[in-house]
Amino acid sequence: MKRLLTTLLIVISLGLCAVCIVQWQREERLRGHILDLVKRLEAENTLRIEAERKVREYEREIARLTELRAEVEAKLVEVTREYNDLSKDSVARGITIAIYMRELMQMQHGLEATQIAFGKGAEALKSHNSVVTTQNSAMEKQNELLKQLVAERNDAITKLNARTREFNELVEKYNKLSKSR
Description:
- By secondary structure, the protein is mostly helical.
- It has two helices and no strands.
- It has helices spanning 2-106, 111-180.
- Helix 1 runs antiparallel to helix 2 (111-180).
- The protein is rod-shaped, with a radius of gyration of 44 Å.
- The two termini are 62 Å apart.
């Protein structure tokens, strides 16, 4: 009987050893799975933090570009206003020249009166021509400035559009990551 109990005790001990081995293997698999989940969570958190950093960066860039766009539009309005003023002034001076020419033609009653009027008219024409030349150069400068401002505005808008596309792609990726959880 003693031998039967000893054998039974050995069998039960071996059975408990087998149960312990099975539990250790199961625990090892669970620890590996938990470790894998922790790594995936850390990777997702890193991606989320990076996405949020990029969102803040893009928001600052959009604000900067919006401000730049407003400045360019303000400059464009100012240059347009100056151009319109110069155009109106040029038309007014053209009308003045026409009036002087008509007065000059009316002064044909005497040679002496004609010579005096012609001298004054020529002098007025010369001064007016120099003023018109100055206005033309100012208009050319304004036109160049206007072209430059339009080019800067177009570049800024192109950059804004590119940043907006990147931002939208980033938001889509973030939304996909959020939905996959």
